[in-house]
Amino acid sequence: MKWGVISTAKIGTEKVIPAMQESDKLEILAIAGRDLEKTREVAENLRIPRAYGSYEELLADPSIEAVYNPLPNHLHVEWTIKALEAGKHVLCEKPLGMDAEECLKIIAASRTSTGHLGVAYYRHFYPAVRRVKAILESGEIGKPILVTTETCETFLPPVDHPRRWILEKQQAGGGCLMDFGCHRIEVMLNLLGQEAAAGGVGGCVYTDHDVEDTATVAIRFANGANGVVSVTRGGTIERDTLHVQGTGGSLRVDNLNGGWLTVKSDQGTRQETLPCHANPHLPLIEDFCRAIAEDRPPAVDAETGWRVQRIIDAVYTDSAFTKGAPQ
């Protein structure tokens, strides 16, 4: 399958494109950017045959069957829809849209297109996440009651950093929730199934940007379990944990990338190590390629992107404490 990449963003050039180039299921034929000279340099460095100076040119190339879209969040809806309208399969970087309404517009476009649509929530394929899901389904720790994730990142890009846009609401749509909290919400949906209600709070400790640097999301699932996602940016520690409390035991992953899993049940306590792939984007990409070949939805489909986003919307639009003082 022949692919094109719209944008020379670092998530693509440093992580996803190298993963794509590891796969025998596809070939990257072209990359497009707004600066043709820079795009040609990127193409040469990554051994990509064609460089285009506009996204329109790439989408007009009839030999390109599928497109990876790693553009900033505010451009996802426009260029994902244009790619679908051009008949391309599209793997869109997360989040699918700036809000749930944008996600629905993209989904509507996908239903009238011959192209498949997927979202790059690659943690769905982590061996540790898959193992936790298998243990939950086996009943070893009983029914899940509470699942919590805590993710802390120290990265806070300065004004002159190329990724500074992630701290600008107009381009990012939000802060740490939109950037990496969305991944953990997808993990929750994967593990616990259908969501029933959600809400939360966000805060901005730093004053040089207009998006949240800390947020906590609470989700109630149809099976009665609760999920809590806490994310923060700009502190002094790095953390990425997952805890599951069940009616008959517990699970703990001390580091999702490392896959260090501790299981406690009436069978005793054991530890397992299930690290992610050397390039964690590769399993996602290969599933998307298989989905196209088998004419089925990808494991992380557009509806998943919409479900994640409507939970984030519930936090951003929360109206608690705005009803006025007691009379």
What would a concise description of this structure say?
Helices cover 34% and strands 26% of the residues.
Describe this entry's structure for a reader.
The protein has 327 residues and is of the alpha/beta class. The protein has 2 domains: 2-120, Rossmann fold, CATH 3.40.50; 124-280, Dihydrodipicolinate Reductase, domain 2. Helices cover 34% and strands 26% of the residues. The chain has 10 helices and 14 strands. The protein has an 8-stranded mixed sheet, covered by helices on one side. Strands 3-2-1-4-5-6 form a 6-stranded parallel sheet, sandwiched between helices. A hairpin with a 6-residue loop joins strand 12 and strand 13 (260-265). The protein is globular and about 60 Å long. The termini are far apart.
Please supply descriptive tags for the structure shown above:
327 residues, Rossmann fold, Dihydrodipicolinate Reductase, domain 2, six-stranded parallel beta sheet, 34% helix, globular
Per CATH, the class of the largest domain reads: Alpha Beta
Bulk shape? globular
Helix content: 25-40%
**Cα-atom radius of gyration:** 20 Å
CATH architecture of the largest domain: 2-Layer Sandwich
CATH fold name of the largest domain: Dihydrodipicolinate Reductase, domain 2
Which residues sit in consecutive blocks of at least 5 with pLDDT less than 50? none
User: What's the SSE pattern?
Assistant: EHEHEHEHEHEHEHHEEEEEEEHH
Taken as a percent bin, the fraction of beta residues is: 25-35%
Instruction: Describe the strand arrangement of the main beta sheet, using strand numbers.
Output: 8-9-10-7-11-12-13-14
**How many beta-strand elements?**
14
* Separation of the first and last Cα atoms: 66 Å
Largest sheet: 8 strands, mixed
Domain count = 2
